[in-house]
Write a structure and sequence with these properties.
The chain is mostly helical and 200 residues long. It is built from 7 helices and no strands. The chain is globular and about 50 Å long.
């Protein structure tokens, strides 16, 4: 019996397309003045930005996708589902409190940081033990996913301290990984439902 609903597969699959598609279209609208390697995604969602009307709904939809996925990911440990859902809520808030057109925003930056942290730790919190566990929820892959996201986040923090650093590239790596991993987990659950001990 399938214990991950079809809509969880759909929501998890849509998340990376919404995020990457959103920043790609918004960057095109900004034109040559925007450098995706050295400027953050938040610049695209700032008040007055040409891509504001694309990036803001994309971030909001991303948050909804994470919430739906967390709700439907029944084989995962409860703490991981809560962390994933919290990351989704953070994305909603980030969309609702965009940064100003110039200068930083403590509110926006704080919520984004909380979202990064929750989406980085949810894989290891969602892990379940046992031979019947789907691949994406086993401790090894879950720990590896969290470790890779943590390393990417560390790179992002390092780049933030540099003048003309590759902060945009680092942020895109972190957020793309965090958007893609829920789909990997859900797909592994669909392929091998929890409790199915058959091989192959």
């Amino acid at each position: 019996m399938r214990i991950v609903p079809w809509w969880a597969l759909l929501s998890s699959a849509c998340a990376p397309f919404l995020l990457i598609g959103g920043w790609s279209v918004a960057a095109l609208l900004e034109g040559s003045a925007y450098d995706p390697a050295t400027q953050t995604i938040s610049v695209l969602a700032a008040y007055g930005a040409s891509g504001y009307w694309v990036m803001t709904p994309a971030l909001f939809a991303l948050g909804v996708c994470h919430l739906l996925t967390a709700w439907g990911l029944r084989p995962a440990a409860f703490a991981g589902r809560v962390a994933l859902g919290g990351g989704g809520l953070a994305a909603l808030v980030v969309a609702l409190v965009p940064p100003p057109s110039s200068g930083g925003s403590l509110r926006h930056g704080s919520v984004a940081a909380v979202g990064f942290m929750l989406l980085a730790v949810w894989p290891v919190l969602a892990a379940v033990r046992g031979a019947a566990a789907p691949w994406g929820l086993r401790p090894g892959p879950s720990l590896a996913a969290t470790a890779l996201m943590g390393l990417a986040a560390l790179w992002f923090l390092i780049e933030m301290q540099q003048d003309d650093g590759a902060i945009g590239a680092a942020e895109r790596l972190v957020t793309a990984m965090q958007a893609l991993w829920p789909f990997v987990v859900v797909a592994s659950c669909v392929r091998r439902p929890y409790g199915d001990r058959s091989r192959g």
